[in-house]
Q: What sequence folds into this?
């Protein structure tokens, strides 16, 4: 990246573009620009790796995804459509009913009958989400209307299950739902979160077989293995380059100062840093301060925390015919747990099998307890999880031969997993549209642009939403220079 000031006549060939972040939005923006003839493109990545919240690592019999894991939907999903265009749909497969045919085990080791679980799951995951009209007119939180709807449906049942078990199921189902919303509680989630999000039709849990989500980054970069060859971007990505300041009204262009002390000058910046990082550092990161509408969006939107556990066993976890199981706490056991140092286990809602990994079990934890879990040592976390499994399961639980967990919140380059709209978002009357709005100069030229899943109004929280946002900002620059060339 040249440090000289730009020439008087700027063209795609000479203009200097810096993309901050090498997640799917940053990769999508940079590759689109390079393919359109922008020669001077540089990605600055704070981590020591490329990929952002796509993070595939070798583990057990193949790989695991510490971040994004599934392609959610087929129609109007640019990830799926990219594979379809390249005749590569064979890279994906359905995960099936793993997350809908789970067992429910109570903390006294009782197993809830499958018939009861099936009916409760149908109500929670099929009947309630379909009632969009009620969401539109509801003024309370998503948690409030979900509770109201759920119990109304339970009261309609001719054959009513034990109400205590139903209550235990509902509490666990809400936690499982939080893994989709990334909220701390459903009572902070706004109904607008569901109303604004556009679900892509088709299978919502398409997995990447034994290759992981890194496959999609390879396709964007047009390489076989981006960890060895960055393909389209070649030497245009610099890792371990954390940005300290962006002086976006500097007389020589946009002055970017790194924590290393290095200074880079650019004509355009595409900022794809996570919403969590913007929340923490926008006041010091941008000089001068961002417009109030942008600040309101940063403060009003939320980046939640969802973490995973991966336990590798010597042989497939038994019973082998269980695809997964959720934990249902008896009230007295839950009260006792909350008085111990392992209180955070309350938000571990279940463990499930992993496609193409027969010896693995994958667990999930959400919310503030997920953030607390990150502060503990790996040894403490594993010991607590083994206690949890042995408390709920009646059969012997062997020690795992390998264990890992994610820590998305304590990583200063992420500070969470994916975004949502809360009641506070509605109160501030803000949204992704404000976060996505570029900073422009007097001539209408985009100076600083914003991309990433949180800037997507309808596909937030997804890789396809992040990718769309990267292409959106690349196209904004491409169209600006096309229009400029036509007016010469």
A:
């Amino acid at each position: 990246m040249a440090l000289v000031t730009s020439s008087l006549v700027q063209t795609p060939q000479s203009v200097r573009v810096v993309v901050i972040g090498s997640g799917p939005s940053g990769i999508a923006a940079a590759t689109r620009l390079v393919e359109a003839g922008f020669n001077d493109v540089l990605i600055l990545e704070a981590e020591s790796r490329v990929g952002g919240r796509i993070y595939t690592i070798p583990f057990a019999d193949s790989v695991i995804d510490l971040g994004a894991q599934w392609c959610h939907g087929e129609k109007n999903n640019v990830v799926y459509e990219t594979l379809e265009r390249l005749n590569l749909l064979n890279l994906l497969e359905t995960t099936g009913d793993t997350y809908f045919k789970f067992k429910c085990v109570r903390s006294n080791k009782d197993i809830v009958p499958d018939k009861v679980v099936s009916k409760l799951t149908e109500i929670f995951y099929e009947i309630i989400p379909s009632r969009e009209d009620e969401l539109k007119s509801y003024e309370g939180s998503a948690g409030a209307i979900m509770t109201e709807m759920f119990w109304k449906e339970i009261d309609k049942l001719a054959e009513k299950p034990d109400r205590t078990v139903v209550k235990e199921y509902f509490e666990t189902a809400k936690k499982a739902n939080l893994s989709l919303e990334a909220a701390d509680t459903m009572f902070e989630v706004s109904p607008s979160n569901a109303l604004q999000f556009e679900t892509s039709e088709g299978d919502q849990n398409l997995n990447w077989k034994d290759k992981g989500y890194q496959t999609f980054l390879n396709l964007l970069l047009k390489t076989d293995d981006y960890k060895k060859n960055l393909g389209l971007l070649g030497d245009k990505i610099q890792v371990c380059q954390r940005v300290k300041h962006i002086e976006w009204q500097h007389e020589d262009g946009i002055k970017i100062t790194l924590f290393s002390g290095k200074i880079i000058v650019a004509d355009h910046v595409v900022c794809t840093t996570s919403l969590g990082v913007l929340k923490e550092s926008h006041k010091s990161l941008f000089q001068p301060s961002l417009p109030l509408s942008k600040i309101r969006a940063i403060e009003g939107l939320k980046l939640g925390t969802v973490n995973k556990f991966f336990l590798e066993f010597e042989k497939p976890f038994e019973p082998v015919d269980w695809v997964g199981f959720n934990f249902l706490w008896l009230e007295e056991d839950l009260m006792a747990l909350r008085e111990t140092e392992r209180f955070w286990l309350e938000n571990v809602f279940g463990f499930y099998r992993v496609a193409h990994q027969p010896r693995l079990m994958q667990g999930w934890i959400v919310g503030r307890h997920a953030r607390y879990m990150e502060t503990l040592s790996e040894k403490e976390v594993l010991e607590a999880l083994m206690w949890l499994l042995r408390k709920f399961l009646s059969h012997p639980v062997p020690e795992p031969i390998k264990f890992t967990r994610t820590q998305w919140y304590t990583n200063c380059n992420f500070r969470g997993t994916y975004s949502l709209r809360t009641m506070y978002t509605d109160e501030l009357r803000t949204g992704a549209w404000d976060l996505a709005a570029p900073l422009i100069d007097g001539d209408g030229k985009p100076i600083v642009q914003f991309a990433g899943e949180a800037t997507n109004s309808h596909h937030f929280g997804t890789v396809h939403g992040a990718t769309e946002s990267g292409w959106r900002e690349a196209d904004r620059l491409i169209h600006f220079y096309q229009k400029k060339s036509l007016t010469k």
Observations:
- The mean pLDDT is 95.
- Residues 113-196 form one domain.
- The chain has 16 helices and 22 strands.
